[in-house]
Design a protein that fits this description.
two-stranded antiparallel sheet, 10-stranded mixed beta sheet, single chain, globular, binds 3-isopropylmalic acid, 11 helices, binds manganese (II) ion, alpha/beta
Length: about 350
């Protein structure tokens, strides 16, 4: 089979980690008899430099016509002075909206070999940790009305700004269904996170999630306020299976969850729409401080490609092969620069990591 993948390498370490991922994908293609066809397109700072725009229309059109999108990372200090509507981050929000990628899956997993890397006491993580955060990605305060009003001579408020959090039942239902469908294939528990003691949008969220839950009698539903959820994540993270939450709460909680694993350089993510199409990217950012040093860990992107094979291309065995190779890499004692290494470990750079994992496929 031939698959068309839009590749958005982006900025900073993006191109480096993507190059290693394509190496691994090519090896999977050779082994399983698939042809992965890569269409490299511009996004973020790289797109601003080349075209003046952070998200060229051509990129969106090509992505829409492909089977899946693989993204490295965007942003860096070079583009900090760009106007708000043409920053690399804006490209990320723009492509999520343009491709209707409303369901963002962010696993927080503690890898067996890396359990000492977590900043939490080992007894808190005893038996491993496997949380899946399902973050709503195309609604809420990110995409509500934004405004900045000038200071008025009639009062002493100075400038005033607001951003509106708004959710429709349609948006809440569809993200809740994604969470419950995934919970059915996992631990059959969904924790919905909101701020229903304060926010009207959260009260609608909680009521609508409860309605969807009625369609899944096998799945246990728990509701937590976001402040409590943030606390529970560090106090007793193993109580969670699937967490479903709004765009902004999911942004914050997924960063927190990634830190408790101790290995953000290892964590992949998927952003999905209706059907099988999706965009796949590492949880980490563009790390401009280490770009070009050969020290970036490509594994989060390599594991994102595995998610792409599984969710968008329906290639389960091939996805398993990538995950098994990463496991083998760690078990063989290899560590990337971001991972804690003991004397018995061999620390390897970006390219060597890609070569070794490709070899282990
Ligand atoms: C993320 C990032 C983005 C977000 C930024 C870069 C716009 O933090 O993917 O979590 O807030 O969604
Ligand atoms: Mn974030």
């Amino acid at each position: 089979m031939r698959y068309n993948i839009t590749v958005l390498a982006g900025d900073g370490i993006g191109p480096e980690v993507v190059a290693e991922t394509l190496k691994v994908l090519d090896k999977v293609g050779a082994k399983f008899g698939h042809e992965f066809n890569y269409d490299h397109c511009l996004i973020g700072g790289a797109a601003i430099d080349a075209t003046g725009e952070c998200l060229p229309k051509e990129t969106v059109d090509k992505a829409l016509a492909s089977d899946a999108v693989l993204l490295g990372a965007v942003g860096g200090p070079k583009w900090d002075s760009q106007p708000a509507n043409n920053r690399p981050e804006k490209a990320l929000l723009g492509i999520r909206k343009a491709l209707n990628l409303y369901a963002n899956l962010r696993p927080a997993v503690v890898f067996d070999e890396l359990k000492d890397a977590s900043p939490l006491k080992s007894e808190i993580l005893d038996g491993g940790l496997d949380i899946l955060i399902v973050r709503e990605l195309t609604g809420g305060i990110y995409f509500g009305e934004h405004a900045l009003k000038p200071a008025s001579p009639d009062n002493d408020l100075g400038e005033v700004a607001y951003d509106i959090e708004e959710y429709s039942q349609m948006e809440i239902r569809r993200i809740a269904r994604v969470a419950f469908d995934l919970a059915m294939k996992r631990g059959k528990k969904v924790t919905s996170v909101d701020k229903a003691n304060v926010l009207e949008s959260s009260r609608l969220w909680r009521r609508t999630v409860a309605e969807v839950a009625a369609e899944y009698p096998e799945v246990e539903l728990d509701n937590l306020y976001v402040d409590n959820a943030a606390m529970q994540l560090v106090r007793a993270p193993k109580q969670f299976d699937v967490i479903v939450t709004s765009n902004i709460f999911g942004d914050i909680l997924s960063d927190e969850a990634s830190q408790i694993t101790g290995s953000i350089g290892m964590l992949p993510s998927a952003s999905l729409t209706e059907g099988s199409f999706g965009m796949y990217e590492p949880v980490h950012g563009s790390a401009p401080d280490i770009a070009g040093t050969g020290k970036a860990n490509p594994i989060a992107t390599i594991l994102s490609a595995a998610m792409m094979l599984r969710y968008s291309l329906g290639l389960k065995e091939e996805a398993d092969a990538i995950e098994a190779a990463v496991d083998k890499f760690l078990k063989a004692g290899y560590r990337t620069f971001d991972l804690q290494a003991a004397p018995e470990h061999k620390v390897v750079g970006t390219e060597e990591t890609g070569d070794l994992i490709a070899e282990m496929i």
